[in-house]
Amino acid sequence: MHTMVDSIIANSAVWILASLVIIAPIQTEQVSLALEEAFVMSQAADVLKEAEGLGYIDELARLERDRASADKVIAKIASLVPPNHGFSISWSSRDGTIIGSWGAGDQSNLVHVTIIISTGTQITQLSLGVGEG
Amino acid sequence: MRKAFILTTTAVAVAYLTLLIIQGMSEEVSILRELAAQRITVTRLSSCSDAITEDLPRYLRGEVEKEVLRSASMGILPNSMNVEVEEWKTASCDFLEGQGVLAELDMGCIGFGRTDRAPEGALVCGTSFGYVLRDEIYETELRDRRAISFIVPIRIYLMSDVVSGFRSSIIGKIWRAFMGNINSEGDTIRRIVTETIRAYQRSCAARGLDFGAKVGFEFDRGNVTTTVFINFEELWVTDISPEAIMLVNGEPTRVTFRKERSTIELLFRHH
Known about the structure:
Chain A is of the alpha+beta class. Chain A has 3 helices and 4 strands, in the order αααββββ.
């Protein structure tokens, strides 16, 4: 036969568990989103750093007016993005005029890293967005 | 009454326990979120630092090339005082501000020198660059100062040497010819000039330079003195080595060191 104490203990346990079940996934998701953002951002920064090291950015800076050749350099930069990741690359001048934009894969939830590129005629910005999935 | 008291007390205790657990979880979650946010900040600062330190030499190289082209067309050596970096500093600060980063950029003096290795007689540019990047929210700070040095492979110093050497050589040879024979004829001088130009063309071609000169002369023979006017009408050297191509407005361009027209007057007294 159940006593009142038993039922109080059972009720309390259910109440606490219910609270945890409701709150824990929300908190966990927020943390995992923040950690994922930090990780993807470091991936995007690594891609641009590697592109700089391989001379792709210098090459791109010389091809401001040669869209066809710039496309090839962008393809080389894009090849550095980890497989199965969506990406977008936007190259714009200081006043916001888009010189070129490229992208592939899932374009949602991209994390962007931007660098500055002097081309000889102007100072531009190249933004790389990378997203998982 | 006793039952109600037990129930109420238990409810309060359970609620308090639940709050404690949730608070504990929230604190841990906050710490994790803070760590993630700080990692983002550090990545952003590091990426911004890489971006400006990689781009400054790129910008400077373009500006130095423009100065080399400008000075070569005037037949003078490039002057580092003519290289401006204010536009880049402004653009960089705007770029960093757009990334949520406050920046203090400090450029040292720009210096030009002559390369001490291949390509011989090219220009080496050096400066120092210091920066402090600060994240506005987390107050994370990244500071560094580094030396920047790069070679512009256009042999401007060598071209200047060649032009000066040619002028000295022509003047010296004509001076010696007249010292040897005050009555030297035009044919002799013409031959000296032609041979010297050819010798310089051969020597320059062997070093990847295209040399050209047009030199005229006149005599004024008096009873007491003979004056020789050497007219350097055209005098130029172009660096034709494969690495000496620069882009001007997107167009491949070669640098020609072109000396302005000048006249040298040699006066010989008859003995």
